[in-house]
Design a protein that fits this description.
Structural class of chain A: mainly alpha
CATH superfamily of the largest domain in chain B: P-loop containing nucleotide triphosphate hydrolases
Largest sheet of chain A: 2 strands, antiparallel
Strand order of the largest sheet of chain B: 5-6-7-3-8-9
CATH topology of the largest domain in chain B: Rossmann fold
Largest interface: A-B, 35 and 33 residues
Strand content of chain A: under 5%
Strand order of the largest sheet of chain A: 1-2
Largest sheet of chain B: 6 strands, mixed
Number of strands of chain B: 13
Oligomer: heterodimer
CATH class of the largest domain in chain B: Alpha Beta
Strand content of chain B: 25-35%
Order of helices and strands of chain A: HHHEEHH
Number of domains of chain A: 2
Radius of gyration of chain B: 22 Å
Distance between the termini of chain A: 43 Å
Chain lengths: ~170, ~325
Amino acid sequence: MVEYRIDRHSGVATYVQIVQQTKQALRLGVLRPGDKLPTAREVVEATAINPNTVLKAYRELERDGLVEARRGLGTFVRRGLSTAPADSPLRSELGAWAVRAHEAGLDREDVAALFTAVLDEHFSTTADRPATATTADQPAPATTAGRPAPATTTDPQAPDPTPQGDPS
Amino acid sequence: MTVTDTALAASGLGKRFGRRGAWALRGCAFRLPAGRVCAVVGPNGAGKSTLLALAAGLLAPSEGTVTVLGTDPASARARVGYVAQDKPLYPQLTVAETLRMGADLNPGRWDAETAERIVSAGELDPGARIRTLSGGQRTRVALALALAKQPELLLLDEPMADLDPLARHELMGTLMARAAQYGTTIVMSSHVVAELEDSCDHLLLVGGGRVRLAGEIDDLLDAHTRVSATAPAPEGTGDTGLAPHTVVESRVTGRQLSALVRPSGPLPDGWRTAKPSLEELVLAYLRNPQAAPLTPAEPAEPAGRPADAEALA
């Protein structure tokens, strides 16, 4: 079972946060096929968000083929995104790399910047981020994301280039 | 359960206090589909409380009509929960006596377990007299009464104002769970938009005794665009290029034009555009009382709602 954490000031639409956190749980193997998602009632009781927001997120996950709603039973995971589950070789290689980076004297932000740079080199950034599309001309995600965001650096989703609107 | 897809509707609704008094509310027309969580937002004195009291049947309209759950407010009363801004309770009763009174006054509808759960979550002593409680604790008792009645429509006037952040989150969660599980329509007022932003899907913006904006929050946000542009016009000509669109607010600072508009066609290429936040939208309308209201009387398709049994099971 996942527990959603809603950050009201992230600039990311609430339903997108639920979609992203669910996908994250699927990638890390926290959620696996057959697992049940919390009911809308459970989510809104814990987060105080509107029930429609949860249903919208679940519908999007369903459209992506990741979950399915079974009438009267709940919403269940259909397939994982676990190409690299918690105990996969890729993860342990990354772990070993992190140890080497640490030994080489890099600190947390250096590593995050490096990782983001490599990530940007190999993966397009526009993919699964519908909510942020309205802000035009957003510069490519800065490699030194100066945002003091606690605990996001270990997030392989990369520090999100939160649109701050126009500096007008 | 009665099948009505409209929880609350008003037509030409107006109220003034005294025959020659000023209008507290006038020309109010909107429709709130059942199952929505609606924020009634506006500055102090805008007419929010008057609107809620009219819906609750505690005030009679001076003109126009208000329809509640498909009937008039008095006939709907058993199916409506209303918590007034000052949370009226009997000060000499204890918490336990207040709940027993609620049970006696609502035969056949009373959910004692819900009432107990809400009260005990606030660690209230059942033997404590209402008069000894803090404002926030009284709010909790009033909400316990309103929810235990298992209403189809909840009218809450400034429900969160007295609550500490923890109680606010917990009780808002309780309200949302109620909406998710039973499809209860909730209407709550506040002058703090941010407080309601995540919990509500529908908006009634009241200002100067009129409804300025009414509709699904997503639709209202989609209808508006925040634009900014550089050097829009030769100095002094005043031609900003905004003319074809409905301008809610615009400002020129040096060579910088920024505005909130309802676009009525494509915007010029060089303009930067962004979706406004709910708070930006509301503030722009409040700052500009002359801006054209947007209150579609017949909102698009009432999209099906939580009866989505699969997600709720």
